[in-house]
Amino acid sequence: MKKWDVIATNDVQQDLDNFVYYLLVEKLNEQAAKAVLDDYDDV
Fold first, then answer.
1. Which of 10, 21, 29, 42 is 20 to 30 Å from the Cα of 1, by its Cα?
2. Would you say residue 1 lies in a domain?
3. Secondary structure, 3-state, 2-27
4. 4 vs 32, residue with greater confidence
5. What is residue 29's three-state secondary structure?
6. 12 within 8 A of 19, measured Cβ to Cβ
7. Structure confidence by residue, pLDDT tens digits, 16-26
8. How far is residue 35's CA from residue 7's CA, in Å, rounded to a whole number?
9. Which of 13, 33, 14, 16 is nearest to 25 (CA)?
10. Domain around 28
11. Which of 10, 11, 17, 9 is nearest to 36 (CA)?
């Protein structure tokens, strides 16, 4: 299995923050926000 090095730039981090904010505040979906953050942590 090939291993990949993933580098999260500041732009990616800001996009993630904005998306999680959208899920929490606009959609009121804490479960989805948590799932996105959990998946991000797995990368």
1. 10
2. no
3. CCCCCCCCHHHHHHHHHHHHHHHHHC
4. 32
5. coil
6. no
7. 999 999 999 99
8. 20
9. 33
10. 10-42
11. 17
